Amino acid sequence: MQKKISPTRQELLRLKKKIKTAESGHKLLKNKLDSLVQEFLLYVRELQRTRKEIDEKMNKFLLDYLGAESSLGKEEVEALISHIPYVSIEFKKKNIMGVEVEEFEANNKKDIKNTTLGDLSSDHNLKEAKRESQEVLHSIMTYATLEQKIRKLAAEIENTRRRVNSLEHVYIPRLKKNKKYIDQKLEESARFEKTILMKVKELLSE
To answer: Residue 111 domain-assigned?
Structure first.
């Protein structure tokens, strides 16, 4: 049930201020929504490109790895790569238009890159597989970061869109309707007062 409106000039001034503030807030939120959508689409395109890169790099890596196994033997390859460090993932927080996201990165990638493969490291397929595995790792970290950013931006876009729609279709129209009601009441009151004043003048002039 809507609260009863007091048709006074003070209430009219208060409503005008609220309308101005609401319209200003609506404009800011609309601009934020447009920026969020642009950022979202940019990340989606980058995610698609990264997904393609991962598929291509993974295929090359598997071919070279299988080539190394063919020339050196599976057990020998496993022994050569067994001392390569496991990936240690670092999480870095970042703010995108008020949305907190995380960027994933391997903080020991230099150690992985500098790990030698021993006396048989000259094997071409094994060297290529090692290099390609690092590229795949980097692309996977990029993909995970983008996917997480997209998910959080999508949630913020939905939240912002609801707020924009609420202001545009509910809150501001209700304020303007109340303002119109007070304007009409004040005009009626002014006409009534004018009529009374004219009647008083007529009576006094008799």
So the answer is: yes
Q: Which residues of 156-165 are buried (b: 16+ CB within 10 A; e: fewer)?
A: bbeebeebbe
From residue 19, how far is each of 1, 24, 61, 166 by CA, in Å? 21, 8, 61, 14
Whether 188 is in a domain gets the answer yes
Q: What is the CATH number of the domain that holds 182?
A: 1.10.287.3240
Q: Could you read off the pLDDT of 63-105 as tens digits, one per residue?
A: 998 998 888 888 888 887 777 777 778 888 888 888 888 888 8
> Is the pLDDT at 121 greater than 70, yes or no?
no
For the whole model, what pTM was predicted?
0.77
Q: Is residue 206 situated within a structural domain?
A: no
Structural domain contains residue 2: no
pLDDT classification of 1: cutoffs 50, 70, 90: very low
